Every structure is written in structure tokens, then in C-alpha cells.
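Handout, section 4.2: multi-component inputs.
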Amino acid sequence: MKEFENLKSQWENQSAPGIPPDGVEQISEKMKTLRRKQWLTTVTLSITVLVLVAFFFFISAYKVPVVTLGLLLMISPLVVRIALEIFSIKAIENMDVSTNTSKFKAKIVGYYRNRIKIHFIATPFILALYITGFVSLLPSFKANLSHGFYTYIQVSSVIVLFVLGGLIANTIKKELSALKQLRDRD
Amino acid sequence: MKKAKNPFEEVYQANYSKVIRICMGYVNGDENLAKDLTQEVFIKVWENLDTFRNESALSTWIYRITVNTCLLQLRVKKRTILGERRDKIQDEIEEFESSEESQLKQLYACILKLSEENKGIILLELEGLPQKEIATITGLSHEVVRVRLHRIKNSLTNCVKNERI
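Output:
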């Protein structure tokens, strides 16, 4: 145990960063920035939904059942996915960080389990609906758009799908690893 | 006339050093990551200060928030901590550090290998907190903390002695 005491004394004598003189102001600023960001996110999401709804009426999509269905199949899963993401962020924000570590750890493990369920059950379902909606719209795109733009939509959609898939896979990997680390015993 | 400190500022000044050192233990001694984490801790302290009910010492309550916030950082910073930092440390050790400095870096690397729960326990011990307070923070019984600490101290000492990072 003497060796541990040596380590402890080295720990105690290490040079740690000093207290920043403007630390409290920095914290106050960071909190303002965080609130501004939350507000911006809400505004951006609301504008996106409004634009989509406006677009829906602008092109009179409601007059063509196939287009209506296609757009609904694309937009609704996106809205659901965004809502799930917002719920997840809120769940983390609302966790009581002042509770004891064992309880807190159990809560984070629960949070990650829910996230894994979202990734492995909800996301594939959402993605399938989105792709179905997109594919069902392709004939309408072909009939109403120029050949160049139609090709652009096809190619870009595949690229977007791969990029999105990569991002989702990366998040799943990170969260699975965090869950594993939290569940590791001594 | 000297401006009076607000209550948060006093809390901040009194606990900053301990909080940042605990955070450093979670991020392999990386000062910049530890500063970010410490800032996050004090944001949470600020947001929750009015919910503090004097059921424990204020510092105990702050250390709970510290350990819990550090647990949450697993979500975002893992690769940076495990990858880049370890490589950097390896280079630094090999170059020109005194044996004490290199031993401290090894201690950080060995702490990083512990389970998340044990990491919290040993960091609080290294900061000189009594076992009873560690038990209050972690939610484990005093007896469990005592036994765990004995085991962690042994494995840490062996790790620092035997392992090159």
C-alpha cells in the first residue's frame, strides 16, 4: 500500500490547470449560447416543416393521390425520426445529474438501450418508408422534370442514402461501445 | 468598493481544482478536454443549485455531478481520449520526461483501463475524500467501497509498475 501512497502523493502534487479568472463569465456565456442554439434548432425545424407543407400545397400534390402518398411516406417518417431525436436529447437533459452514480449509471444504460431500440427497430422501418415514398414518386418526377434533373435526383438520393447510412452506423457503433463500457464490471 | 461575489462564484472558486482533477482522470490527463468537462459540470451546478437540499455537503453534491457528467462524456469523446492522447503520451514518455512524470502519465493510462464505476471511486480516493463520502457519491455501501478500493489500489499499483503504455 506504500506504493499506492506514493502514487497518491504524485497525484496530489501534479500541476493542474488553475482557476480561469473569467470562468464564471464563460459559463454564463456558454449557457446563453446553448439556449440560443436550442431556440435556433426549434425555429429551423419549424421552418422546414412549414416549407414542406407549403410545397405540398404549392404543387397541388393533394390532387394526385400517388404524389400525396409518396410525399406523406417521405415526410412523416422524417418528422417521427426528428421527434425521436428531440425526445432523446430531452431525456439526457432531464436526467438528474445530482443523483448517486449507481442510479445515474442505471439511467444512462436505460437511455442507451432505448437508443439501440430506436436504431435497430425504428430507424430501418423509418428508412424503408422513406425509400418507398421516394420510389413511388419517381414516375411523377420522370413525367414532370427534365431528364437532367431527374438523373440528378436519382444519383443524389443514392449518395445521400449512403452518407446518412454511414452517419447512422457511426452513431450506433459509438453508442454500442459506450453501453458496453458502462456495463463492464471491475 | 469591492464587488461582492455571488454564491455561484464562491462555489466555483472553492471546488474548481478538485473538479478539474477528477475530470482529468476521465480523459487521460488531457487538460483541454478536462477544462471542457469542468465547464459542463459547473453549468449543471448552476442550473441545479436551487434544487440542492442540504442532504449532504455541497462539495459531495458537486462531486456527484462531476462523476455523472464524466460518465456522460462517453457519448462523444471516447475516440479522442483513447486514441490520439495515448499516442501522444507514448511519445512524450519516450522523449524526455522524469520518471515521476512518466509514472503519473502511466497512472492516468492505468486509470483509463478501469471500469467506469471503479474510475470514479479511485479518483475520489486520490482526491482524498473519505470512504463514507465516496459511498454517498457512488450510492454503494461503505463496505463495498472499502473492498473495491483495496482491490483497485492493488491493480493500479501493479499496472503502473508493470505496464509500459
